[in-house]
Design a protein that fits this description.
The complex is a heterodimer of chains A (about 120) and B (about 110).
Chain A (H helix, E strand, L loop, with lengths): L4 E3 L2 E4 L5 E6 L7 E6 L6 E6 L5 E4 L2 E5 L5 E6 L8 E8 L10 E3 L3 E5 L2
Parallel strand pairs in A: 2-11
Antiparallel strand pairs in A: 1-3, 3-8, 4-5, 4-9, 6-7, 7-8, 9-10, 9-11
Chain B lengths: L4 E3 L2 E4 L5 E6 L6 E8 L3 E9 L2 E5 L6 E5 L5 E5 L8 E8 L8 E2 L3 E5 L1
Parallel strand pairs in B: 2-11
Antiparallel strand pairs in B: 1-3, 3-8, 4-5, 4-9, 5-6, 7-8, 9-10, 9-11
The chains are: A mainly beta (about 120), B mainly beta (about 110).
């Protein structure tokens, strides 16, 4: 089935550091979504991207929709402790006509504080 | 405005039983989707409903079913529970006139023993 390959799986951050993660697919997506999930909660939408090449910011977060439409990147600048959590990329499943209601998710990037 | 409300938050059931989970979408949202989240498989799509009609169904056995009511509230049912059904079940709603993706509820944590 369709898969989104998200990397890295986990990373440790020190306050003030910049963080980068990415998501790739073998299929073309018409939308890329980035979510953050805190323990015991549902995912919260951070950024939505709808056009190839689009670069969108939300505060310290910046995400890009790759030109090939098969990848997306999320950057967090000057990380703070509350950035800790799991970040997921997601997109409408191409096998279902790209319906917004049927999303495929990456396995997530877990951000933890560097010991 | 109130978010997506899922009840109950936690549930413990025995193998072989059946369970019904409830989701109240954000007021005005008519599209509701359900997802199963497990450590091994991650987030996987279960169903999508719009105006009481199932639009899409994920790759889950027939023991998983759902429905949507005229007020857009949705329920999902799992019959003959198996240990592997233990998961966080998430409901998400969206306004179909919005491009901003789905808003998720906090989920129902189901444990099958």
């Amino acid at each position: 089935g369709q898969q989104l390959n998200q990397s890295p799986q986990s990373m440790f951050i020190q306050e003030g550091e910049d963080v980068s993660m990415n998501c790739t697919s073998s299929s073309i997506f018409n939308t890329w979504l980035w979510y953050k999930q805190d323990p015991g909660e549902g995912p919260v939408l951070l950024i939505a991207l709808y056009k190839a090449g689009e670069l969108t910011s939300n505060g310290r977060l910046t995400a890009q929709f790759g030109i090939t439409r098969k990848d997306s990147f999320l950057n967090i600048s000057a990380s703070i402790p509350s950035d800790v959590g799991i970040y997921f990329c997601a997109g409408p499943n191409p096998n279902y006509g790209g319906s917004q209601g049927n999303l495929i998710f990456g396995k997530g990037t877990k951000l933890s504080v560097k010991p | 405005k109130a978010g997506v409300t899922q009840t109950p938050r936690y549930l413990i059931k025995t193998r072989g039983q059946q369970v019904t989970l409830s989701c109240s979408p954000i007021s005005g949202h008519r599209s509701v989707s359900w997802y199963q989240q497990t450590p091994g498989q991650g987030l996987q799509f279960l169903f999508e409903y719009f105006s009481e009609t199932q639009r899409n169904k994920g790759n889950f056995p027939g023991r998983f079913s759902g429905r949507q009511f005229s007020n857009s509230r949705s329920e999902m049912n799992v019959s003959t529970l198996e240990l592997g059904d233990s998961a966080l079940y998430l409901c998400a709603s969206r306004s179909v006139v919005s491009n901003y993706g789905y808003t998720f509820g906090s989920g129902t944590r189901l444990t099958v023993v």
